[in-house]
Hints:
Blueprint: H1 5-19, H2 23-32, H3 36-57, H4 61-85, H5 109-112, E1 117-121, E2 134-138, H6 144-190
Antiparallel strand pairs: 1-2
Helix pairs in contact: 1-3, 1-6, 2-3, 3-4, 4-6
Membrane topology: Multi-pass membrane protein
Family: Belongs to the NKAIN family.
Protein name: Sodium/potassium-transporting ATPase subunit beta-1-interacting protein
Amino acid sequence: MGCCSGRCTLIFLCALQLVSLAALERQIFDFLGFQWAPILGNFLQIIVVILGLFGTIQFRPRYIVVYTVWTALWVTWNVFIICFYLEVGGLSKETDLMTFNISMHRSWWREHGPGCVRRVVRPSAPGILDDYSYVSVTGCIIDFQYLEVIHSAIQILLSLIGFVYACYVISIFMEEEDSFDFIGGLDTYSYRQPPQEHVELKPLKPVEVNIKNGCY
């Protein structure tokens, strides 16, 4: 089977999900911000996308089915991230939910976004440790929560397109397998020989030989 348009598009989408503003890029910045929940999700995303890419190239519909199911879960997760950073439904971006309450780290984009100026201000009040300091961030062109929302929105867009093409490629594979089995069945039937009739064998009567006269 050649590279049909749906299959080639799915291969391109899987590759795009891996590199361009997607899993690998997002994983790097989540590591820098110690965002453990997104790190785990990104890791699973990378594994499943590679699995879907392999299944598409090697004509393995089961792998593409796994990719399709995970894509639906991935869309749900990114919708939750958008709600988290936009503080929808009582969620707060200031909580430690993304770090599993292990640390108080926030998104890496909070202090390193485009145009952001980061200043470390040491408190002058007495009784505070010398190594304790405040971080002041000013001049950001885009706030960090909107950058996170943009990343999740890109993920949702790519995943929805990938979901549609994955379903389309699965249907193509299934149709070709059914047609192959049907043609193979006809060929097998056409070359099948008719069953042989049962022939009843009867024992032969012994023949007496007259050795003296040389006759039977």
